[in-house]
Amino acid sequence: MIDSKAEGAVMRPVAIVTGGLQGLGLGIAQELLSDGFRVAIVDLPQSPRLPERLDGDPDGCRYYQLDIADIDRHEDVLSAIEADFGRMDCLVNNAGIAARPLTDILDLEPSAFDKSVDVNLKGTFFLTQNFGKKLIDTKASAKDVYRSIIIITSIAAEMVSIERSQYCVTKAALSMVAKLFAARLASEGVYVHEVRPGFMQTAMTASGSSGRIEELLQSGFVPVPRWGQAGDVGRAVASLAAGRIPYMTGQPFWIAGGLNIAPNL
Fold it and tell me: pLDDT tens digits for 37-48?
């Protein structure tokens, strides 16, 4: 006898969210679950406790430990997710590190630069490569299924911050990574999206120069004069992952309150 509940679970699409235990990643995971996805959370802690808003769906959310800079483990973790869930439909590349401490570009040490490259750029690039190849391998059984890779970059992919040079460089490079994989995978029926968050109210932002951002928000520099929330990014990602914006790939999707348009003069 077929277990209809189990069969229904397998039919639900599966999204992987890196860095999904807090901040933007947590908001993304929550919105994906609300949108009917099952979610594989990938993050650094060895034995985490999933937040209640994720733990409430034991069949729909599982945790996998991975430092994305550890490229040799990518294959094992992706294979484990595929075995546990029976499928993979979306990879959300959210994991990344900020530029801390803030450092003038003239004083930046090679070690700090290399660390950002290893996590933000190299780790994301090769996890995407591995995931993309797995999607190609399962193409025959994925008819009429929207499959996607979503890369969370930042307004720093385009806007200069001389105290966050390594962060700006890696996020700008990731914007090109999204374009490259979009061009390669379009013929395979895989869509690649870049999401660029603006001033987000997260723990990562709070550890930086949030006072300056408050000034910009109050001055009208951002047309929508408020902090962005994790849910703002999460809803955008869920819409992309569900294929509700189908005629788009490889292009930046700004979630920044209009920050990238010129303010009124």
Answer: 999 999 999 988
Query: Residues for the chain: how many in total?
Result: 265
CATH number, domain containing residue 191: 3.40.50.720
Give me the residues paired with residue 39 across strands: 15, 61
Q: Mark 134-152 as b/e (b = at least 16 C-beta within 10 Å).
A: bbbeeeeebeeebbbbbbb
CA distance 248 to 246: 6
- Quick one: average pLDDT of 247-257? 96
Is residue 89 situated within a structural domain? yes
Contact 227, 217 (CB under 8 A): yes
Over residues 102-125, the pLDDT tens digits come to 999 999 999 999 999 999 999 999
Coil, strand or helix at 204: helix
Range of the domain at 161: 4-255
In a domain, 69, yes or no: yes
pLDDT at position 153, please?
98
Report, as an integer, the average pLDDT of 70-98: 97
**How far is Cα 121 from Cα 116, in angstroms, rounded to an integer?**
7
> Which one, of 26, 21, 36, 28, lies nearest residue 236 by Cα?
28
Taking Cα atoms as reference points, which of 137, 228, 246, 146 lies closest to residue 189? Answer: 146
